[in-house]
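About this split. The held-out portion is used to measure sequence recovery: a designer receives only the structure tokens and must propose an amino acid at every position. Recovery is the fraction of positions where the proposal matches the reference. Here is one held-out target exactly as it appears in the evaluation file.
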């Protein structure tokens, strides 16, 4: 890679690292794993930086690398995991409702398959359109819609099974209604 492209990549990382770390944090619940995910994605992207013709699409490219990497990790760990009847309670460091809601949502996101989690993250947290999500994940818009529908139904089911009535349930429903209206 030419020296100018190395500098361009370094500048890109400096300016976008916070947003990219937030995206990684939404894909994996553990903050340390999120940093590892971002670092791995950056290393993989660095090797192909000169192949990205339109650098304005670098965020989308990097998010796709993060999703693929997270999926690889999930598949590798899948054999090590043992299902249990009882999920552990979500621990919340901050007692405000917003932080409690976010912690609960991040905890219940663990029940989703990687494809469903990716769709939910891109549509609801990254606020990408159906078409943008489909392009980023390499699937049709219809598949994005049906996957999102099933994922949200699964999240609702998980919330109900935890018998947690409160702001998190209302926040999820409000967010879904706003998405449908948009």
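Reference sequence for scoring:
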């Amino acid at each position: 890679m030419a020296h100018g492209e190395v500098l361009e990549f370094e500048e890109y990382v400096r300016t976008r690292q916070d947003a990219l770390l937030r995206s990684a944090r939404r894909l994996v619940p553990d903050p340390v794993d999120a940093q590892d995910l971002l670092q791995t994605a950056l290393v993989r992207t660095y090797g192909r930086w000169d192949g990205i013709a339109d650098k304005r699409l670098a965020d989308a490219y990097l998010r796709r690398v993060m999703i693929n990497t997270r999926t690889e990790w999930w598949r590798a760990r899948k054999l090590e995991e043992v299902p249990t009847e009882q999920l552990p309670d979500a621990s919340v460091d901050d007692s405000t409702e917003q932080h409690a809601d976010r912690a609960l949502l991040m905890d219940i996101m663990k029940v989703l398959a990687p494809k469903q989690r990716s769709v939910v993250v891109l549509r609801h947290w990254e606020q990408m359109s159906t078409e943008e999500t489909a392009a980023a994940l390499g699937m049709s818009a219809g598949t994005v819609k049906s996957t999102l529908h099933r994922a949200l139904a699964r999240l609702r089911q998980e919330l109900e099974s935890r018998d947690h009535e409160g702001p998190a349930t209302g926040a999820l429903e409000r967010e879904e209604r706003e998405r449908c209206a948009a």
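Annotator remark: Residues 84 and 111 are 12 Å apart (CA to CA).
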